[in-house]
Design brief:
Layout lengths: L10 E3 L2 E3 L3 E3 L14 H12 L4 E8 L11 E2 L3 H16 L3 E7 L19 H5 L8 E2 L13 E2 L2 H21 L3 E6 L4 H6 L14 H18 L6 E6 L10 H13 L4 E5 L21 H11 L2 E5 L5 H9 L5 E4 L1 H5 L3 H8 L11 H20 L1
This protein binds flavin mononucleotide (FMN).
Length: about 375
C-alpha cells in the first residue's frame, strides 16, 4: 500500500478534479412534487458533502415528466427543475465536493408505486393518494410482467424526441452548475430495455443484433456529449449483465463501453440486473460483498476505460483493495452512505489518516478533536 491511500487521492477527469475517489451513488428519494427538488433533497445531499465524499450524485432525474419511475421522482424537464437543484449543488461545491447528476427515463418501469407503497405498478390505492397512473413508453409494447402497464412501443419520432429531451436536460444541468453528468443505461429502465435482448424484440434499426440494440444508447450519449461541456466528465451507468439466461452479458457491456469511450464517455459505472420480468427490483445477479467489482474490472481491462465500482462495498480497506488491484477507478457507495453519511470521514480515521478530525467540517471537527482527547483521558483513568 502506498504512503497515502488511493481512496483519498484526487482523480483528475477532463478539467474536473475530484478531491477523492469516493462517490455517493445516485439514490432516488421518491420525495419530489412534480419533479421539483425540495428541502428533503437538500438535506439528503448536503450531509454527504459534509461527510467529504469526493463526488455526490443527484438521483436519477427524469428528462421528461412521463419518464419518471414514480410520482416522487426528481425531474429535469424544465428550467424550474434545474433551479430547484441549485441550493444543493452550491452547498455541495462549497464543501469542496463535486456534484454529479444522473439523467434517466424509466421506460416500461415508469408509473410505479413509491417503494414503500408496494413497488409495483401504480394502482387504485395510489390513485386515492393522488398518484394516478400515466401512459408510458417502452422499447416494445411488452409490459414488465403480468398486471403491469402496457407501454406504447416507441416510434422513430418518439426516439428523436427522447434524444432532444436528454440534450435539453444536459444543458440545464450544466447551467445549474453540475460537474459530472451520467446517462442511466441500467436497471431495466428505457435505455437498458433497448440494450438487452430480453426486452428488445424490435425489428427496426433499433433492435435485432447488438449494433441495433446499442443504437439508442449510443445516439443519446453522442447527443448528450455534444451538448455537455468538453471539460466536464460524462459517465454511463450500465447493467453489466442481466444475470438471466440469453440476456445481456459482460461481453456486450465491454463492446458497449468501447463504443461509449469513442463517443467521449469517461467512466462506466458498473451496476447489474434490474431487467427481470419478476418484479421491479428482483435481483437476478447473485449478491455478496463487492459482487459487481468483477464487472468493473473486466470492462476496465478489456475496454480500456475508467470504471466505477458499486454494490456492497462497505469499508475503506475493501475499497482501497479494489483501487489498488486496478479493478476500478472510483468507488461508489449507496446504502452504506444512508447508514453513515460520514462514511468517508470514518474510513479515513479507520485508515489512520485523520486522528485529529482535520478532514471534518470545522464546525464539527474542532469539537470532536477536543472530545476525543478528553474521552481518552477519562477512559484511561477508569
Ligand atoms: C434508495 C435507493 C435509491 C436508488 N436510486 C437509484 C438511482 O436513482 N439510480 C441508479 O442508477 N441507482 C439507484 N440505486 C442503486 C444505487 O445507486 C446502488 O447502485 C445500489 O444501492 C448498490 O450499492 P450499495 O450496495 O452501496 O447500496 C438506488 C439505491 C437505493 C438504496
Amino acid at each position: 500500500m502506498p504512503a497515502f491511500p488511493l481512496l483519498f487521492s484526487p482523480l483528475h477527469i477532463r478539467d474536473t478534479q475530484l478531491p477523492n475517489r469516493i462517490v455517493i451513488s445516485p439514490m432516488c428519494q421518491y420525495s419530489a412534487n412534480d419533479g421539483l427538488a425540495n428541502e428533503w433533497h437538500f438535506a439528503h445531499l448536503a450531509k454527504f458533502a459534509m461527510g467529504r465524499a469526493g463526488l455526490v450524485f443527484i438521483e436519477a432525474s427524469a428528462v421528461t415528466a412521463q419518464g419518471r419511475i414514480t410520482h416522487g421522482d426528481l425531474g429535469i424537464w424544465s428550467d424550474a427543475h434545474a433551479d430547484a437543484l441549485r441550493p444543493a449543488i452550491e452547498f455541495i461545491q462549497g464543501q469542496g465536493s463535486k456534484v454529479a447528476l444522473q439523467l434517466g427515463h424509466a421506460g416500461r418501469k415508469a408509473s410505479m408505486q413509491r417503494p414503500w407503497f408496494g413497488n409495483g405498478p401504480v394502482g387504485a390505492d395510489d390513485a386515492s393518494r393522488g398518484d394516478v397512473a400515466w401512459p408510458i413508453f417502452g422499447a416494445t409494447a411488452e409490459p414488465l410482467d403480468d398486471g403491469w402497464l402496457e407501454p406504447q412501443a416507441m416510434t422513430a419520432g418518439d426516439i428523436a424526441h427522447l434524444t432532444e429531451a436528454f440534450v435539453a436536460a444536459a444543458r440545464r444541468a450544466d447551467t445549474a452548475g453540475v460537474d459530472v453528468l451520467e446517462v442511466h443505461g441500467a436497471h431495466g429502465y428505457l435505455i437498458q430495455t433497448f440494450l438487452s435482448p430480453l426486452s428488445n424484440t424490435r425489428n427496426d434499426g433499433y433492435g435485432g443484433d447488438l449494433k441495433g440494440r446499442m443504437r439508442l444508447a449510443l445516439e443519446v450519449t453522442e447527443a448528450v456529449r455534444a451538448a455537455w461541456p468538453e471539460g466536464k466528465p460524462l459517465f454511463f451507468r450500465v447493467s453489466s449483465v442481466d444475470g438471466i439466461e440469453n440476456g445481456w452479458e459482460i461481453e456486450d457491456s465491454i463492446a458497449l463501453a468501447g463504443e461509449l469511450k469513442a463517443l467521449g464517455v469517461d467512466v462506466i459505472d458498473c451496476s447489474s440486473g434490474g431487467n427481470s420480468p419478476k418484479g421491479a427490483t428482483n435481483s437476478s445477479v447473485g449478491r455478496g460483498l463487492g459482487f459487481q467489482v468483477p464487472f468493473a474490472s473486466s470492462i476496465r481491462e478489456k475496454a480500456g476505460i475508467m470504471t466505477q465500482a458499486v454494490g456492497l462495498i462497505i469499508d475503506g480497506a475493501q475499497a482501497e483493495d479494489i483501487l489498488q488491484s486496478g479493478d476500478a477507478d472510483l468507488i461508489a457507495i449507496g446504502r452504506e452512505a444512508l447508514a453513515d453519511p460520514f462514511w468517508p470521514l470514518h474510513q479515513a480515521q479507520a485508515m489512520g489518516l485523520d486522528d485529529e478530525f482535520a478532514m471534518w467540517p470545522e464546525q464539527y471537527g474542532w469539537w470532536l478533536e477536543r472530545r476525543s482527547h478528553g474521552l481518552k483521558k477519562i477512559l484511561a483513568a477508569e
